[in-house]
Amino acid sequence: MDAQIKQWKRTVEQLYAEPVLDDLAAAQLAAEMARPDMPPMLRQAAAAALPSLRNAMVKGAERRVRDLARRRFGAVLNELRVLTAPRFGKRRRSGETLSPDEFHRHLLGLPSSGHLSNPEIHQAFKRAAKTMHPDGGGTELAFQELATARDALMKGS
User: Fold this and answer.
1) Contact between 23 and 63 (Cβ < 8 Å)
2) Rounded CA separation 38/4 (Å)
3) Residues 6+ apart with CB under 8 A from 142
4) Which helix (DSSP H) or strand (DSSP E) does residue 3 occupy?
5) Domain 98-157: CATH class, spelled out
6) How many CB atoms lie within 10 A of CB 50?
7) What is the per-residue pLDDT across 1-44, written as a single tens digit (0 to 9) for each?
8) Cα–Cα distance, 41 to 118 (Å, whole number)
9) What share of the chain is helix, strand, coil (3-state, %, to 5)?
10) Which of 17, 52, 92, 113 is most buried per CB count within 10 Å?
11) C-alpha span between 56 and 64 (Å, rounded)
């Protein structure tokens, strides 16, 4: 699986380096990464990026839709970089030392930097709630944590 993740990282970096993101190729990669046997944070970032990438593929998609897809795909790239970063000694994985704001953004599958609007936060919450809600196969504790993340980000915006 490590070889596959490294290959994905190279491909995602090539796609992201282009001036215009190839939404079809990005959506196909994100769909592969959203499989249940992938690392949880990568799977969540890819699942959060998929709807935006699919909306950006529509002919005549607005610029803001394409920009949102690019930002969400950037979260996938960030997670791939975390997974392929070298780990030495007793150092922690970077995901364990996130600030509360970064943790909330990561939990909702949002980019780790930049301004977020309330509709973006709410949309990310609804997307993540589909899998985290107890009726959707999640746990009550996970859903409460998700709601707390949404509330904290809404207050901060």
Assistant:
1) no
2) 10
3) 132
4) helix 2-17
5) mainly alpha
6) 20
7) 688 888 999 999 999 888 888 999 999 999 999 988 888 898 89
8) 23
9) 75, 0, 25
10) 52
11) 9
* The two structure tokens encoding residue 107: 């939990």
The residues spanned by each domain of the chain are: 1-94, 98-157
Q: Structure tokens of 13? A: 């970096």
Region 81-104 average pLDDT: 72
The rounded distance, in Å, linking the Cα atoms of 6 and 25 is: 17
Record the tokens describing residue 34, joined without a space: 């959203």
Give tens-digit pLDDT for 119-153: 999 999 999 898 888 888 888 888 999 999 999 99
